[in-house]
Prior knowledge:
Shape: elongated
Distance between the termini: 56 Å
Strand order of the largest sheet: 3-2-1-4-5
Mean pLDDT: 92
Radius of gyration: 27 Å
Largest sheet: 5 strands, parallel
Amino acid sequence: xxxxRTGLVVGKFSPLHLGHELLIRRAMEACGExxxxxxxxxxxxxxxxxxxxxxxxxxxxxxxxxxxxxxxxALPHNDADALAxxxxxxxxxxxxxxxxxxxxxxxxxxGDGFAAELTRYFARRACAEAKRDAGVRAFAVAxxxxxxxxxxxxxxxxxxxxxxxxxxxxSDPHAHRAFLSPEVYSSFVQTVCFLGGESxxxxxxxxxxxxxMETVWAAEYGxxxxxEQGGRLAYADMARIAETQQRREDSQRLQAxxxxxxxxxxxxxxxxxxxxxxxxxxxxxxxAQRRYDHxxxxxPDFDFVQDGTRREAExxxxxxxxxxxxxxRREISHVLxxxxxxxxxxxxxxxxRC
Length: 354
């Protein structure tokens, strides 16, 4: 049997680091239900509400998660006094979540005061509701029946188990990635996509940059499937290629360090779907909208290499023109890579480090 019915953990979680995760796991071990509330005003860079909710739901799918957005909710400022913060959390529990809690879990010395204020707040609300719903007599009875006190459970206040803080990790998530789970760290990985026609150096660039930056890259699945099927692709393969490519990117992002380099994107598959079949599935159209932090277009400015799997040089030029028009139409900022390999690498490095 669990020690508490409902436990509460509140924080900015900007970002969610392993110290937070230890706190939440302790709450889940001790409580039948665990509520996690996250808010921040102002928001902290790289830790937007949708990211925090994604992190918390990925790491703690069994918990009840409430992440608030300052653009849609009236939040107390991070510098507001303690009473305002505690009453705000109490209102969230009662008015938004429809519950009270038995325990609050923190790693801070303010935890006892937090628990005491929640106890008072829940008692005041219970009395007010009794008076409104059942009359003065029931109100007098409610006043005489004090609610059980909310307990404070302190976890690793000295930061011995996990010597981390949100401020430390935010200062350089890459240097402190050991304090982040892969699901959280991947949000700080920048995606770099190489586009271009056949034999324009996309694969060479993706592999070379991954080696240079000591990270991983996502190889082109469409080419692998084309070779596996003996140079034959069906219309149904188009959406499959894009979906598999994006799953590969998502998987590799969990292994990446600072950057993930991508050999093509669903935009490439969209081109081939239109070229080969004159149409594209709506699902493929949606996948082609995925955005990358950096996009580089490889120019067809060196001799075309026919390896037995490619079309002709004129087709490569037509592809290049399509990319230029499509990137402009979609308002996707990109950098053109020209010249030999080392010049292209230098251009990418300059863009990534600017």
